[in-house]
What we know:
Layout: H1 8-14, H2 27-42, H3 45-66, E1 70-76, E2 79-84, H4 96-108, E3 114-116, E4 122-125, H5 133-155
Helix pairs in contact: 3-5, 4-5
Amino acid sequence: MAAVVTTKEIASVMSQALHFNTFGGNPVACAVGSAVLDAIEEDKLQENAHELGTYFLLELAKLRDEYEFVGDVRGKGFMLGVEFVDDKESRAPLPADQFADIFEDMKDMKVLCGKGGIGGHVLRFKPPMCITKADVDYVLACLKISCDNLRSRRSKM
């Protein structure tokens, strides 16, 4: 299921062209979409995303304050990013090999993250809406271990 939200000005131009959807209006797809929306409401998944997303963001901010190479923490709900920098003064991206160390550490601890940012130095978190506080705490613990490992490696350079 999908929807497009736009301005009246943009929408008026759309009538000048032919548009179609694959399986548009498929009754089975609509029933599934409706059931998903019901589950989101019944399980209070939006509230969960708001509460745990806020908790996750605040805990990530503590890592920003603790590590010299965590430059910024940003996001909303469950779309969160942690920017890794070479140093907070220059804000230059963390060297790729060091970022890869964090990324691989997280994978080794069974936490899958995304990579992003112009410099490829932002660790992205996009968990499912059904995540629990225990899950968030596990991810945070793994990230702290990864950061401690990087701090240790950097001190030996």
